[in-house]
Design brief:
heterotrimer, A mainly alpha, B mainly alpha, C alpha+beta, B: MetI-like fold, 2 domains, C: alpha+beta
Chain lengths: 319, 325, 570
């Protein structure tokens, strides 16, 4: 799927013929400027760096909270607290109140974070593997293999992602596993393009030519020399991919096509707010989950921005 | 120019076929009797009573043959004759189902994308021109924040503020009950279109900014400046025109994303369009209906890409000679 | 429909104005048309290129229009073969007539097409005198031939009925012999053009009450004479098409049925000698959330079955009244009788603390049910299965249930009735040592699971006698019923052990009937093919302008039977 949060992913998300139309390195940070004093440039780098640090801290906090959820709340996420009752406002026992089924909302937000994180990282890991393998195959073998893989990639990219995911989830039935698999199976094109593009550049580079000359076998060149060189850009794609996957999972769960109801997910916590009375009178039921999603995605985007700045070769050269 | 457009259309056809093949094969894998969704229900009820006839009909429709290519080409043949099959949920022809909802979705998409372009591009230009100013940071931060917030959260907040608290706008639906006039339609359009526009504008701001910066830092802009041209002219005449091409690309890329946003927006605002239909079709596992939706959106997305291509050709005559070759 | 094309044009024009304002590099200016345009300025800001006819707002000065909605279950059809949802039944009552109607006490039989009727003492032969003034929308008179056509067609095509089986028509004497033919059952006897005698195969004292139901409406023979069973699903008449679907009820379709609803216009000089005070009905089929928002905005005059929890938010909307009553639908657990034994089912019944769930999860908006079959009397010797976890554990231990096995409880993910209380049920059942897995699924996979794969121990359901009487719930146990196959529950699916008792009860009257019903209630209460838990409240919200004879029946699906008596103050 297209990663619209990441301007630098654009070059890799275009159909092939159109890449030529883009200025090289579109979206890469513009560090050098005619009007910028070195001090300001440094300030800006620092600012960017700081945001990435902030993002990293935010994400670590969220990860830790999800991981140590049982330590942060005495309530299991599906426990019905009959003594308190449903739809109760926040108090000492239930810091964010209870939901329509008398379950603790804070616990559901914490455990819902696990769902989002598992889907976010799981789906991205899956499509990184698929995308890297296809990209390596296309870039390395070239010719017919390349053409076939790239045409297939174009096709997948022309389909609106959410729509295709809805279709596939309907086929396999909603669950965490199917959401991961479906996002994974549809999300690989960006990775494949990126890997292939990098590989084409690398193939012409001097050290690969040198390796060929001294008789290093193909497979070794591919795995030992080429793959490490594309790890950087892959990390950037993966980071923004996590943001996209978290948003997708929450959308699917919101529509009732993601995680199955008794299980907590940020998306299905917010679904309750389509009821007018919940939306207007019981904000504690949905606002925390909304904040959780936005914070997570924002943190990942900050990290992605920072990583991109750090990894982009032009940025480092000019710095 | 005509030849160029024709070539673009021809290139799109295999992609469209690819989309439908993927969708078709996936839906054939789903459980359920395919016969139910391919036959006119009148005929079907008759068939159900007679197992022998049912088997004959199965053979006649080719359900005993491989899904691909045989069954797929049969479906394709029907589509070319304007027959998309029957919906199992509404028992009506799918052409009818889609036809009654497409105008609402097109309206929502066109208006919201238009608004997104009108908001996103100027803001992107401003932030690039005033790089590192407080305005730049402020707008950029807002854009990142909006890009990180799910559509449904923005929609719920918008309903809460503008419809429930301020009573300015309706909470949803295409029309007030019992009305069909245009002012009423526009009144109902404002909120969903604005939410969708804001969501789509956020990435557009970031792209436009990046693209403008690239051009602003290029040598010919420096030359133009050194020749003593007024800054407004430099930006308007030289920089923006050159930044436009990647921006057109981005707008085209936004379209599949906007379709996804529309699915959720329609659901929350009870906007009677294709997005709502898609969610319904998925819940009811109505394969023919989903196939119809995939086909129509595939066509729409590719058409948008072709229009973008024509846009390049207009913005940059060199493109027509196809620099890729 | 008419507004669509100009609408697209205007939208493009709107766009161009928006773009013009955005051309100045001020972000405030460009965002203005997006979010801050006040409501009243929307028509004013419409560009001059908008077609002139769009300016005129609809005038409803002289016409009284009632706009209403009900929960959203719906099939876009009106022929009895496909009449399965309450919304369709309400529509059928608006457009068609039945032989007799029922009053809001759900007992008193009122005239509709028939002005008089008599029943033989053995409840087998019924005679109806039709109102000679009755006409169809096209002016043709309604005669005994239409009644005979309706009954005969139904008896000839019993398998055509996909939703509610028309048992009363099928049970007409000789009905079974005409299946698949074009013959008229011998139990139908035309005395004259306006008098008919109907003889049943076996006695049935519930006949009159049941044929007041919407699915038994009389069809126009001159319009549907040659209709085949297959065509009944898709013919223009059958789909509720304005101008095509004609009835003898007080309203006509003025806008055909679509997924979004339908519109009706009152007939002038209606044959009952009285015209409806309401000129037009706008019937919306939509999600409850949308209806609630539209009630608050004054767009709807009546919503039947608002989610009860929404009452709080609507309480301070001026001009709205609320009717919060115990509903007739009963929330229940249906067992898969192939996988479960009686002791396990009884254990489940003892395990659930029903009063606590009603109070603490449902906010008190439900009424306790004593695990009796819907519509039955609460006999003294009925086991009420009061909460007793110890007893539940004991029964579970004695049952054949393997405690290591997973107890799969299926529910429909889209219905809050199920999702809200399912976690509570799971918790109670786990407390007695069952390993419960909740399986919440969307409609299609859910019905696959229940009807085909059969891989579940129990599922949550919602149903009852609809306030009509014990005989209405016979379909849940009576395998003769053709519809709702998943509900045909008996000791062993396929073997209908309660059918005889239900038939015997229908044939009997007075004490004899009560004795049969008492025994049947005890049997069902002990065997527990399904456990009845509670009746969620129904909340109906309506404008105070509705008056006259306006009432919502306990079985809210029948509320429109007396719509001629309703008034609507301007």
């Amino acid at each position: 799927m297209t990663q619209l949060n990441d301007p630098s992913a654009l070059a890799t998300s275009l159909p092939e013929g159109e890449m030529a139309k883009l200025p090289v390195g579109l979206g890469a940070p513009q560090v050098v400027g005619y009007q910028v004093s070195p001090r300001r440039a440094a300030l800006r780098r620092f600012f960017r760096y700081r945001l990435a640090i902030v993002g990293l801290i935010m994400l670590s906090a969220i990860l830790l909270m999800a991981l140590f959820a049982p330590l942060l709340t005495p309530w299991p996420p599906n426990w019905v607290d009959f003594s308190t009752g449903a739809r109760q406002p926040p108090d000492a026992a239930h810091v964010l109140g209870t939901d329509v089924s008398a379950r603790d909302i804070w616990a559901r937000v914490l455990y819902g974070g696990r769902t989002s994180i598992i889907v976010g990282f799981g789906a991205v890991a899956l499509y990184l593997i698929i995308g890297t393998l296809l990209g390596l195959a296309a870039g390395y073998y070239g010719r017919f293999v390349d053409q076939a893989i790239m045409r297939f990639t174009d096709t997948i990219m022309a389909i609106p992602p959410l729509l295709l995911i809805i279709v596939f989830v309907a086929v396999v039935g909603p669950s965490i596993a199917s959401v991961i698999v479906v996002i994974g199976l549809l999300g690989w094109p960006v990775t494949a393009r990126l890997v292939r593009g990098q590989l084409l550049v690398l193939r012409e580079s001097e050290f690969i030519t040198a390796a060929h000359v001294v008789g290093v076998p193909d497979r070794t060149i591919l795995l030992r020399h080429m793959l490490p060189n594309i790890l950087g850009p892959l990390t950037v794609v993966a980071t923004f991919g996590v943001a996209t996957a978290v948003l997708l999972e929450s959308s699917l769960s919101f529509l009732g096509l993601g995680v199955r109801p008794p299980e907590a997910s940020w998306g299905n916590l917010i679904t309750e707010a389509v009821s007018p009375v919940v939306l207007t009178r019981l904000p504690w039921q949905w606002v925390p989950a909304a904040i959780a999603i936005t914070t997570t995605v924002l943190a990942v985007n900050f990290i992605g921005d920072g990583l991109r700045d750090a990894i982009d070769p032009r940025a480092t050269k000019r710095a | 120019m005509g030849a160029y457009i024709l070539r673009r259309i021809l290139i799109s056809i295999p992609v469209l076929l690819g989309i439908t093949i993927i969708g078709f094969v996936a839906l054939k894998l789903s459980p359920g009797d395919p016969l139910l969704t391919s036959v006119n229900p009148e005929v079907l009820a008759n068939l159900m009573a007679n197992p022998a006839l049912l088997e004959a009909e199965r053979r006649k429709l080719g359900f005993d043959q491989p899904v691909f290519p045989n069954q797929y080409f049969r479906w394709l043949g029907n589509v070319l004759q304007g027959d998309l099959g029957f919906s199992i949920t509404s028992r009506r022809p799918i052409v009818h189902e889609i036809g009654s909802r497409l105008p609402q979705t097109l309206l929502l998409m066109i208006v919201s994308l238009g608004m997104a372009i009108c908001i996103g591009i100027p803001i992107g230009v401003i932030t690039a021109v005033r790089q590192y100013s407080k305005l730049d940071y402020g707008l950029n931060a807002t854009a990142i924040f909006l890009a990180s917030t799910p559509v449904f959260v923005l929609a719920l907040i918008a309903i809460y503020v503008f419809a429930v608290n301020l009573h300015l706008l309706p909470t949803g639906q295409v029309h007030t009950v019992g009305r069909t006039d245009l002012p009423d339609l526009l009144h109902h359009l404002i909120l969903p279109a604005s939410v969708l526009a804001v969501v789509n504008a956020a990435p557009l701001v970031r792209y436009t900014r990046a693209s403008m910066l690239e051009v602003l830092n290029s040598e010919y802009v420096t030359t133009a400046r050194s020749k003593g041209l007024v800054e407004r002219r430099v930006i308007g005449r030289h920089a923006f025109r050159n930044a436009l091409i990647p921006i057109i690309t981005i707008v085209a890329l936004l379209i599949p994303e906007a379709v996804a946003g529309a699915v959720i927006t329609e659901q929350i605002f009870a906007w009677n369009g294709m997005g709502q239909l898609a969610v319904k079709a998925a819940g009811a596992r109505d394969p023919s209906l989903m196939m119809g939706i995939i086909l129509i959106t595939g066509v729409a997305v590719l058409a948008a890409n072709i229009i973008a291509d024509i846009g390049y050709a207009v913005a940059d005559p060199r493109v027509r000679y196809d620099p890729a070759k | 429909m008419r507004a669509r094309f100009p609408a697209v044009l205007a939208a493009i024009a709107l766009l161009s104005t928006a773009c013009q304002s955005a051309a100045s590099p001020s972000p405030q200016a460009s965002s203005a048309p997006a979010s801050s345009a006040p409501a009243s300025s929307a028509p004013a800001s419409a560009p001059p290129s908008a077609p002139p006819e769009s300016v005129a707002p609809p005038s409803d000065d002289a016409k009284t229009v009632l706009r209403f909605a009900r929960i959203s279950d719906f099939l876009p059809s009106i022929h009895p073969v496909d009449l399965g949802t309450g919304n369709q039944e309400l529509m059928a009552d608006i457009v068609f007539s039945t032989l007799v109607d029922v009053d809001s006490d759900e007992v008193t039989i009122l005239p509709d097409l028939a002005t008089e009727w008599t029943a033989s003492e053995d409840a087998t032969t019924y005679t109806f005198n039709l109102n000679p003034a009755a006409v169809w929308s096209d002016g043709e008179p309604v005669t005994v031939d239409d009644v005979i056509f309706t009954i005969a067609w139904s008896a000839q095509n019993p398998t055509a009925f996909k939703q509610i089986p028309v048992d009363m028509w099928v049970n007409v004497k000789g009905g079974a012999g005409v299946v698949g033919t074009t013959n008229v059952p011998e139990g139908l006897k035309k005395i004259d053009d306006h008098t008919i005698e109907i003889t049943l195969e076996r006695p049935d004292a519930t006949f009159l009450r049941r044929i007041a139901g919407a699915v038994y409406y009389i069809l126009p023979e001159h319009k549907l004479k040659d209709l085949t069973a297959e065509e009944a699903l898709t013919c223009a008449f059958c789909l509720g098409t304005a101008g095509e679907t004609i009835g003898s009820g007080p309203f006509d379709f003025s806008e055909s049925i679509s997924a979004g609803g339908a519109t009706f216009t009152a007939k002038k000089d209606y044959w009952k000698g009285k015209d409806s005070e309401i000129d037009e009905l706008v019937y919306k089929i939509q999600e409850s959330n949308v209806s609630v928002a539209q009630l608050a905005a004054g767009e709807l005059d009546l919503v039947i079955r608002v989610p009860p929890a929404e009452g709080e938010g609507l309480a301070n909307v001026p001009g709205l009244k609320q009717l919060n009553v115990p509903g007739v639908g009963i929330f229940n657990i249906n067992f898969n009788n192939n996988n479960t034994d009686k002791l396990l089912r009884q254990a489940v019944a003892y395990a659930i603390n029903r009063p606590e769930t009603i109070e603490q999860v449902l906010g008190g908006l439900a009424t306790l049910n004593y695990t009796i079959p819907p519509g039955f009397k609460v006999y003294d010797d009925i086991n009420k299965y009061d909460f007793d976890p110890e007893k539940a554990k004991e029964l579970l231990g004695q049952s054949t249930w393997d405690p290591n096995k997973t107890f799969r409880l299926a529910l429909l993910a889209e219905d809050p009735n199920f999702t809200v209380t399912a976690p509570a049920l799971q918790q109670y059942l786990e407390a007695i040592g069952l390993k419960v897995e909740l399986t919440a699924l969307p409609t299609a996979p859910y019905s696959d699971l229940i009807q085909k794969t059969n891989d579940f121990e129990a599922f949550l359901s919602f149903g009852g006698s609809e306030g009509v009487g014990w005989y209405q719930s016979a379909i849940y146990y009576d395998c003769a019923g053709l519809g709702s196959s998943q509900l045909k529950l008996s000791e062993d699916r396929g073997e209908c052990i309660y059918t005889e008792q239900f038939e015997a009860a229908a044939a009997a009257t007075g004490d004899a009937q009560d004795e049969i019903l008492h025994q049947l209630a005890l049997d069902l209460n002990d065997n527990l093919p399904e456990i009845y838990l509670w009746q969620p409240n129904y909340l109906h919200v309506y404008t105070e302008r509705l008056g006259g004879g306006f009432t919502i029946y306990p079985n809210e699906r029948e509320s429109f039977q007396k719509i001629l008596d309703w008034t609507y103050a301007p």
